[in-house]
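Newbie here. two chains, one complex. Structure please?
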Amino acid sequence: LKKNLRERGFVEFLRAQAGFRPPQLRLGIGDDAAIFRPAPGFESLLTCDLLVESVHFDLKTTPPWELGARAVAASLSDIAAMGGLPRAYLVSLAIPRRGALSKEFFKSLYAGMRAWGESFGAALSGGDSSSSPGPLLIDIFMLGEVEKGRALLRSGARPGDLVFCTGSPGDSAAGLAVLQGKLKNPDKGAAAIAVKRHLLPVPRCLAGRFLSTQSAASACIDISDGIASEAHHLSRESGVAIDLDADAIPLSPAVRALGKNALDWALRGGEDYELLFTAPPSKLGLLERDFRGRTGVSLSLIGRVKRGRGVRIKRHGKWKALADGGYEHKFF
Amino acid sequence: LKKNLRERGFVEFLRAQAGFRPPQLRLGIGDDAAIFRPAPGFESLLTCDLLVESVHFDLKTTPPWELGARAVAASLSDIAAMGGLPRAYLVSLAIPRRGALSKEFFKSLYAGMRAWGESFGAALSGGDSSSSPGPLLIDIFMLGEVEKGRALLRSGARPGDLVFCTGSPGDSAAGLAVLQGKLKNPDKGAAAIAVKRHLLPVPRCLAGRFLSTQSAASACIDISDGIASEAHHLSRESGVAIDLDADAIPLSPAVRALGKNALDWALRGGEDYELLFTAPPSKLGLLERDFRGRTGVSLSLIGRVKRGRGVRIKRHGKWKALADGGYEHKFF
């Protein structure tokens, strides 16, 4: 057992990376805890996302700046899915002893984190670090805020509601397939677009804010593990059935150009960080009129909420049960 | 690259472990984020503590219940050192693929976390998990609260202030030495006490609250890496010198019985989770009169704050510079 961490060198390094400090952050890196002053009338949102080398990313295909951005994007996306404003985050790093990672690597990693965090209002506020005999591991803990009672939950979908998704899910999985060399002679332009979408996902914070401030969604979740898995989450938490229309699921031209797997990538692929949400039909007019212009992201009506349970999908004119969790992993 | 986590099985397991849910926690495990309602007039405290197998703990000598308690104790201690009230925490777990860890192991781990968390008012509120090709890794993110402007910082020590520590630092390091078999024929009673102090450290939350609510401390830090390292932190952050008196550092009878290293354990050992703080002489009466009775923990006056920089210690009648960070670790 070796003692480790919290060493001054790393804290000084971190302080130099901190940058942006919003007024709500009363105290950032360097004490026993960061101090954040909550906005009156708001509730706090707490989330964390763990990224493990060789499980969630491969250093051979992910440059450190993009790795930092993606790590923060995962938590920003959780706050977005709650309809909240990202405010502050802490970063825990387990750093492999094998020592191939340079100071420049970490500067670049934090620069990527900061670029994504600051773009959406979240300040690097602290963290912890340790050496590790294992892989590089990044854990982001994010604090967000949302007006009292306005958070978008997974549990609010009701029979009769419509099901929407933002953007074009599947791009990220296609980009990963490109990076892993799994596609034969992929179209270069399409490959470049998909890879960018994989490495630099843009969390839908504006979209989440539109939905919460306009009370436009009955339930919401971010698409981190594919539409199938997230639809099952909404179905379970809301106690409803969800019917999806395969033809309505928006696939980007890039993802269509990259393979026959396009729909599977959207249903089963990960890390799109688009939003999947439900809304009562009374909100359709508002969404059609204002969503795109106010959030910058496209919106597609892809299904309906029904009484019952489970998720079905209509494909080639036929209804079929859509299995949950293509990538389910058993710990025990 | 394998897809991972956030699998339903683990979330369901976590929900079953959640237990205590204070009214401020509006939404716990199972959505994209937990929702916490801040108390009016309070600021939020954010901290995280990363524990890595073989760096911070050894599964051969640390039972899972104690491991959970210790992991949460580290964060509780950070909140205590800020003078705050622990409220909620998230747990990220990287779980080794080698699969020697049973469901019972994790039940016990969470039971230990909950026991320590609930004892001080903090609710298990969520987390993330992943498989990992490396060691078991536990990262705790804790949210605490403290009255606006009342947080105890590291930066408030002023020349003329007195330096205090709580309890008996060094016990934990002595206990670790026992567990690692480094002591020859240790006294059995003393060994048992020290091992208990190592495995189940009690964070000084009541002491921290006394200091913040009574405005009794000018600066405060928790002793997680030994008095020497923490005194240097206070010295640096406050821009002052700190003089310590070796004879005044309180060593428990157990730690004295275990070896000649007793003072070194207190100065350089880790994870005591006692508090080291400074206070103006005007607070001495209050501290002598009320501290022990109101917090349950003993208090020792161990030094003085001076103009200048650095940390000195008087030992056998001679002043000597006390080196920083006996266990400093270089990442780069």
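Moderator note: The longest strand of chain A covers residues 85-96. Residues 228 and 267 of chain A are 5 Å apart (CA to CA). Thread marked as resolved.
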